[in-house]
Amino acid sequence: MSATFVGMPAFPQAAREALGNAQLRANLAHATGTIRAKRAAVVAEVEDWEELRLAGAAIKDATLLRLDEHLLRLEAALQARGALVHWARDAAEACAVVAEVARAHGVDEVVKVKSMATQEIGLNEALAAEGIAAWETDLAELIVQLGDDLPSHILVPAIHRNRAEIRDIFARAMGAAGRPAPADLTDDPARLAEAARLHLREKFLRARVAVSGANFAVADTGTLVVVESEGNGRMCLTLPEVLVSVVGIEKVVPTWSGLEVFLQLLPRSSTGERMNPYTSTWTGVTPGDGPQEVHVVLLDNGRTRALADEVGRQALRCIRCSACLNVCPVYERTGGHAYGSVYPGPIGAILNPLLRGVGQDAQTDSLPYASTLCGACFEVCPVRIDIPEVLVHLRSQVVDAHRGGLPRPEAVAMRGGAWAFARPRRWAFVERAGGLLGRAVGRLGVRRLPWPASAWTRARDLPPVPRRPFRSWWLREGSRS
């Protein structure tokens, strides 16, 4: 599960199934609409918001151009402050490091801070194979884990669930994973949060090893930063004896002054808050305070592949705010599961193919087409990732990857179009023939075409054919003017 949810079909099929779920669409519309409104309100308060976006993009681009230098500075700063640094080329290497640390301390469970990187590498499943339980402590992640579900949103992994569904999950599954839910549990949000707090408290108090990611890593000082809304992260970062942080290599920022920009952009773009309720920073090991053994796993897992793509590398600016998901008309109607990855929505549609490479499987190759190219994602992106540009770029890569062998239907159609457009007489013939056929179909009342054109008319009505083609109309009407 390092890149895609195992067994997920390509986006068109998964999206079609999701569209048939009315409850899912209602849950998504309510949640994304609420987050959009909150974001718009707090962004409107900042007079220099566009300047902040430009600054964030510039800092990220400059850092990526000298990423090797900044990573070496980060490594040196971490080691100087007592942290152990590991380099992981892929998911398997990163998971092996975390499992080895857990085994070295003789534990059979770890507690986790919400982390996209650990989901990306399939850490929970890898630890389970080693007999080590990984307990999610973020409320939404806990809901997903107890429900034997998959996350569907970067910020709110359980966005596809409503309160009644969450209450049923807690009542059914909490007892098998620890402290059971109260017998009189209702779907009141305060009661649900209380049940989660009581369930997690025993895990926090007995855990000896914790696993986190990081929103940012400051190269100057070797400081890791996690922002969150619940406080569960701070419990994981302070109580256990051992902390392992899995950090994507693109998370590095050179200085604290650069971090200042992102701490203004991220909360407004993600949760619609002026600042995150909990911003935790830690720098290596502090004797007598917090974890006394700190490991940092610097994760590549396809990031250098994305960095080599001159158009696509801007995706590595992403600070995981999820603003693009909340404005995307496609995501709002299909949800995150249809994307088949821990990175859903517009950013997932470009990040997954960039990390994995196109031409590997149909599921990944379908993602650049999971968009209307409306541009709403670019307008809200706090670091100005031009997602539509990258989508079009990746579509061309998908086409190039499948050249040779039997041509696809769209390739045959394009070649036919090229043949027809090459000569005026050919086009006139095609136009007349198409018009005669179209009018015959219209008289028969046909609204759906047979395969392969059925792929087009399955989701839209066949438009009526004009009584005469444009060329004929122009010869008559143009001569009158």
Give a brief rundown of this model.
The protein has 23 helices and 10 strands.
Report on this model:
- With 481 residues, this protein is an alpha/beta fold.
- The protein folds into 2 domains: 19-303, Rossmann fold, CATH 3.40.50; 412-480, no CATH class.
- Helices cover 52% and strands 10% of the residues.
- It has 23 helices and 10 strands.
- The chain has helices at residues 11-19, 22-44, 49-65, 67-80, 91-104, 116-120, 123-129, 139-146, 163-177, 189-206, 232-238, 256-270, 303-307, 323-327, 329-334, 345-356, 362-366, 376-380, 387-401, 409-421, 424-443, 454-457, 470-477; strands at 84-88, 109-112, 133-136, 209-212, 216-218, 223-228, 242-248, 252-253, 278-283, 293-299.
- The strands form 2 sheets. It has a 6-stranded parallel β-sheet with strand order 1-10-7-4-2-3, sandwiched between helices. It has a 4-stranded mixed β-sheet with strand order 8-5-6-9.
- The longest helix is centred in the N-terminal third of the chain and has 23 residues, at 22-44.
- It is globular.
- The termini are far apart.
Tell me the major beta sheet: 6 strands, parallel
Q: What best-fitting shape do the alpha-carbon axes yield? A: globular
The N- to C-terminal Cα distance equals 65 Å
Just name the CATH architecture of the largest domain: 3-Layer(aba) Sandwich
